[in-house]
Design goal:
Elements (H helix, E strand, L loop, with lengths): L1 E5 L2 E4 L4 E8 L8 E6 L6 E6 L5 E3 L7 E6 L4 E6 L8 E9 L5 E4 L3 E6 L1
Parallel strand pairs: 2-11
Antiparallel strand pairs: 1-3, 3-8, 4-5, 4-9, 5-6, 7-8, 9-10, 9-11
């Protein structure tokens, strides 16, 4: 299974971007699908996560501005980012968890988001 992320770019503060992530390879049913980000010199942090049943959690810093969505049939997860701020700058990674006796984490390759002030 491979995750392919896309949609990053350079945007001015207040602008919007939409990130997409698609899984390819074996046909699997993921449990949680999420987005993380990592700013220069900082640890990777959770941005948003959505369970297979539709439960959602956002980091407090993005609540009200970002929206996560997923298509279970297509194994895709998206992140709509509105009202972007310079502090949203970083590399964004999609993540998917395959549940089982030993959960398996899959990561996308990362996509750069840069928000200029």
């Amino acid at each position: 299974v491979q995750l392919q992320a896309s949609g990053g770019g350079l945007v001015q503060a207040g602008g919007s971007l939409r990130l997409s992530c698609a899984a390819s390879g074996s046909r699997v049913s993921f449990n949680g699908m999420s987005w993380f980000r990592q700013a220069p010199g900082k640890q990777r942090e959770l941005v948003a996560v959505m369970s297979r049943s539709g439960n959602i959690m956002y980091a407090s810093s993005v609540k009200g501005r970002f929206t996560i969505s997923r298509d279970n049939a297509k194994n895709t997860v998206n992140l709509q980012m509105n009202n972007l701020k310079p502090e949203d700058t970083g590399v964004y990674y999609c993540n998917a968890v395959l549940s089982g006796s030993t959960p398996v984490n899959y990561w996308g390759q990362g996509t750069q988001v840069t928000v200029s002030s």
